[in-house]
Write a structure and sequence with these properties.
- This protein is α+β, with helices and mostly antiparallel strands and 418 residues long.
- It folds into 2 domains: 154 residues, Jelly Rolls; 202 residues, SGNH hydrolase (Rossmann fold, 3-Layer(aba) Sandwich), CATH 3.40.50.
- Helix content is 22%, strand content 26%.
- The strands form 6 sheets. Strands 7-6-11-3-13-14 form a 6-stranded antiparallel sheet, with no helix packed on it. Strands 1, 4, 9, 10 and 16 form a 5-stranded antiparallel sheet that branches.
- α4 packs parallel to α6 and α6 packs parallel to α7.
Length: 418
């Protein structure tokens, strides 16, 4: 009988773990690295992501310290650097990853001894071609779930427009002059930014997490209205729920929200239809995608008034995910009554689209965000306790209610066939 071949990704992970353990930089695999049946497991999975939204002028000569919040822990990390909207090769003089000082979400300081130099094919100077993403070599670093990493990149010269994620809802840091990527002290980081630069994802070599879930959406998924630098977006709260499960049921959570994003048309960033593969399907270890897109099409200009167009777009997304064996959860569109973009006609479109999401039979499951956050007395509006005041986004309590609306058991069931 011919032995079953192990997937290449599994072999690479196993070899990486063996080498890192043999070198003494990693401890032996903990007991939690075994499934209930006692079979050891180790593999790469996504622990954090941000969807590139567009490009802005670069920061030549600066060191940019991005703060990211992990959803899964493990023994080693690798970084997904992006130059997706660049027009020239992105040249980085140095890249590092470190643990942020615990309990200091607005500090650029690193835990002493945690700074690691990041390489690509063994080289510390990294070049990313225009229009591309690049995944770095593995870096040995023990990282816990719900930790904060500092991913620091030095741009020694002008590489043209910088690909970034505009609305991070997180304070990040800039050292205006020189290579400060290896600094443990944050003293050189005298400027701040509310955006993530050149960073699309972080993978973790994990004995505790068996894949990832992508939260795919607009500003509501991006976390607009939540407390800055507090990790209270609904995908963050979903990650906390998943992290509390037994190891063999845990999943990382990757946030692919872009503020202002639309399902059908380009606007703030490419449309959902245009970016779905790059921002959802090609991340590491994706098992499921939760799609919540459409409110900006309904209330935006030009407004989209045909529910059939929404249904056709959702079918395209589901077919592309199912072709890869990825489960798709449909997220209903939340109320926005009281917002300047609301009208009775647009409310009728929202209700029609939500009926399709709930009963159309397309999705592998439904996250009924609308039901979770609406005011029972005025269902076209958000419950006042969840409304930060703009009648569109949510406060921390509202995002918790959204996370609680996701059926965790349904995230690991095999997807429908396309």
């Amino acid at each position: 009988m011919t032995a079953r071949r192990r997937p290449l990704s599994t072999l690479v992970a196993a070899v990486t773990l063996t080498l890192l353990t043999a070198s003494g930089v990693l401890p032996a695999s903990p007991a939690a690295a075994r499934t209930p049946a006692g079979t050891p497991w180790i593999g790469w999975t996504g622990t954090w992501a941000a969807a590139p939204s567009h490009a802005v002028p670069g920061l030549p000569g600066a060191s940019i310290r991005n703060v990211v919040h992990t959803s899964a822990g493990g023994y080693a990390v690798r970084i997904r650097i992006t130059n997706r909207f660049g027009t020239a090769p992105l040249r980085l003089g140095a890249v590092t990853v470190a643990l942020q000082t615990p309990g200091a979400p607005k500090s650029p300081g690193a835990v002493p001894g945690s700074v690691r130099r990041v390489t690509h094919r063994g080289a510390a100077a990294i070049t990313v071609p225009a229009g591309r993403d690049l995944v770095t070599d593995p870096v040995p670093l023990w990282v816990r779930a719900a930790a904060h990493l500092l991913v620091t990149l030095h741009t020694p010269a002008d590489s043209g427009p910088a690909t970034y994620h505009r609305s991070a809802v997180q304070t990040n840091f800039i050292a205006p002059g020189g290579d400060h990527t290896a600094d443990e002290s944050g003293a050189a980081y005298t400027a701040t930014t509310g955006s993530w630069y050149y960073l699309a994802g972080v993978d973790i070599l994990s004995p505790l997490t068996r894949g990832s879930v992508v939260a795919f959406g607009d500003s509501i998924t991006d976390g607009s209205g939540s407390t800055n630098s507090a990790d209270r977006r609904w995908p963050d709260r979903l990650a906390a729920r998943l992290a509390a499960l037994p190891p063999h049921r845990r999943l990382g959570v990757l946030n692919a929200g872009i503020a202002g994003n639309r399902l059908l048309l380009d606007g703030t960033g490419p449309s959902a239809l245009s970016r779905f593969d790059a921002d959802a399907l090609t991340h590491t270890g994706v098992r499921a995608v939760i799609v919540m897109e459409g409110v900006n099409d309904i209330k935006g200009r030009p407004e989209q008034t045909d529910p059939a167009a929404f249904a056709a777009a959702y079918r395209q997304l589901a077919a592309r995910a199912h072709a890869r064996g990825i489960r798709v959860i449909g997220g209903t569109i939340a109320p926005f009554g009281g917002h300047s973009g609301w009208t009775e006609a647009r409310e009728a479109v929202r209700q029609s689209v939500n009926r399709f999401i709930r009963t159309g039979g397309l999705f592998d499951g439904v996250a009924d965000f609308d039901a979770a956050v609406r005011d029972p007395q005025r269902p076209e509006r958000i419950l006042p306790a969840y409304d930060p005041g703009d009648h569109l986004h949510f406060n921390d309590a509202g995002y918790q209610a959204m996370a609680d609306a996701v059926d965790l058991a349904g995230l690991r069931v095999p997807a429908k066939t396309a």
